[in-house]
Amino acid sequence: AMARSKAFLFSGVEIRWKCEIEDGETPREAVFHFPGGLADYLKESLEGVSTYSEGGFHGKVEFREKFGEPGYVEWAINWTPARDGFIQSYCNTVPTPEGGTHVQGFWAAILKGIKAYGELVGNRKAAQITREDLMAGGCALVSTFIADPAFVGQTKDRLSTESAARMVEGAVRDHFDHWLASDSKSAGAILDFLVLRAEERLRRRQEKETARKSATKKLRLPGKLVDCSATGREGTELFIVEGDSAGGSAKMARDRRTQALLPLRGKILNVLGAASSKLGSNAEISDLCQALGVGMGTKFRLDDLRYEKIIIMTDADVDGAHIASLLMTFFFTQMRPLIDHGHLYLACPPLYRLTQGARRVYVADDAEKDAWLERGLGGKGKIDVQRFKGLGEMDAKDLKETTMDPKSRKLIRVTIDEDEPGETGDLVERLMGKKPELRFQYIQENARFVEELDI
Fold first, then answer.
1. Among 106, 112, 249, 316, which residue has the least CB neighbours within 10 Å?
2. Mind listing the pLDDT tens digit for each residue in 216-233?
3. What is the CA radius of gyration of the chain?
4. Catalytic residue chosen out of the listed positions 317, 393, 405, 429
C-alpha cells in the first residue's frame, strides 16, 4: 500500500515491486505507475461506478504562483450516487487520516465555489448545501507539500499548519470556479445532486424535530421533572427522590446527560386496595406515570418507557424505607413488567459519615458504624461521626460519590423470586394491604428473627 501511494503521489515515478514472501495476499511482483497522479488513482478507484463527471475535477497548483511560498497542492474529486463518499489526504506524502487544515481549505473552496455557481445559474437552493452534503457522495484525494508542516500528535494523523488552509483554499477555488463554468453539463449534474442531498438532510432533521416535539407534547412531562439531555432510553436513569431539598442536592450531583430527577412530596398513595378513581386523581402518581412515559395496569406499555433504570432514592431511615415500600408496591401492582425486565432499582445512600483526619468513610447502618469505631479509620485524631437525617443534608459531592455516580455507588435491583411468584404477591398483600390483622400476624411469626429494630 505504501509503495502504491508513493506512485500516485509522485506522478513521474514508476515503482517496481518485488516480494520473496508468499502469503497469498501480497503479489510477488507489481508495477505502480500513475502518470496522471491523483486523477489516475481516483479514476481507477471509481472504475465501474457511475459518476456525475467523466473525468472529475482535478489539478495541481504551485503555491509560489499566488502566495510566494514553496510547495504545492494536488487534488482530484468526483461525485457518485452509487457509493458513500471518502477523502484521502496527505501532507509531504504522510497520510493524514484525520484530515487537518489542508482538508479544511479544500472543502471550503469546493463549498464556496458550488454555492457561487448555484447563485450564478439562479438555483436558490444551492445556498442550503453544507460540507456534509459535499462529502456524502464526494470521492476526493488531496495532497499538499509545504515547508515545515506541523501535525497534531506523534502519529501525525492531522495537519495543523494554519497557512495550509488559506493557501489550499485559494489555489483550489480559482480552478474550481473555472472548471464549473467550462463544463456546464457536469456542473449542473453535480449541483442538482448536492441540492437533492441538502433537501434530504433538511427533511430528516425536520422529521426528527417533529417527532421529538410530538413525543414531548404527547407525554405532557410534569413541570417538576428535571430531565436528562439524552434522547434515547439506553444508559439513562430516573431518580425518584424524596422531597425538594434532596432534589436540590441531587440536581447538582447528577450527570445532566443521562440522569433525570423526579422529586416527590411526602409519602405517595398506598395503591393496594385503592380505588382506580383515587389512583387517577393522585398528583404524585400522575407525575410519575407521565415522567416514565407509560400507563398503569392494563395500559402499561414497556416499549414506551423513557429510561433504562428507575432508581428509588430515599433517606436511609425508617421514613425513607416506608416511602420506598410504597413505591415498590405501586410498581409491583401497576407496572409489574418494570420489575420483571430488571428496570427497577433501590439506591443505597449512607446513614453516617465517619471522618478521622484525612480519612473518610460512609456507612449504611449502626452495625457498620460501630465496627468502624471499634477498629478505627487509620487516620489521626478523634473520629467525627455525622448522621445524615436525610438526603437533603448531604452536599452534592457526598451524594454523587456515595449514591449517584455509577463508578462508586451501590444499587440493589428489585427482583421477584421466579420460583415463588405467588409468595411475593401474598407477602405484599399481607404487609401493604388493608387488613391490619395480617400485618400483626406476620409480626408475631417473624419477630423472633429481628435482632435490631429502628423505630
1. 112
2. 555 567 778 889 988 888
3. 34
4. 317
Amino acid at 140: A
Residue 192 is among the residues annotated as catalytic for this protein = no
C-alpha cell at 165: 488552509
CA–CA gap between residue 234 and residue 175 (Å, rounded):
48
C-alpha span between 354 and 382 (Å, rounded): 10
The pairing of beta strand 72-79 with beta strand 86-91: unpaired
Cβ contacts of 240 within 8 Å, gap of 6 or more: 262, 264, 288, 310, 311, 312, 313, 327
Q: Where are the alpha helices (DSSP H) in 140-282?
A: 162-182, 184-219, 243-253, 276-281
Write down all domains in the chain, each with its CATH number in brackets.
Answer: 1-35 (no CATH), 48-203 (3.30.230.10)
Active site residue 445: no
Active-site residue, from 74, 169, 242, 287: 242
Find the helix packing angle between 436-446 and 421-432, rounded to 10°: 110
User: Quick check: is 405 catalytic?
Assistant: no
Predicted TM-score (pTM) above 0.70: no
CA distances in angstroms from 156 to 2, 8, 12, 71, 101, listed in the order given = 16, 20, 26, 19, 13
pLDDT in tens, 168-206: 999 999 999 999 999 999 999 999 999 999 998 888 887
